[in-house]
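Entry type: protein chain
Record version: 2
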Amino acid sequence: MSDNTEPAAIIQRLYDTIASRKTADPGSSYTAKLLHQGRAVIAKKMGEEAVETAIAAVASDSDAVVAESADLLYHLLVLWVDCGVEPDEVWKKLAAREGTSGLAEKASRPLT
């Protein structure tokens, strides 16, 4: 893959586009409308997309899993923008967890 099609580059470009819509007219952009509606609406929409992705997976519909996953990633990025989370922060967290058992990593977290 060239740098232009690397997954991290695609995510970063989409993130940057979403961030640029923070000041756009909510009547002119779905992304601006979501950002204007606030975090609760964004989180709800992201949750809906997660459920739709899971339903597609249970139905063994790989085309729908792909489409719903794209929707889920988009809405997750909208949530990141709203929360001020940069993709690099997530990549660093994933890198720090790489090679660590999921069970060990969960056990190391403080109880909430």
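Comment: The chain has a mean pLDDT of 93.
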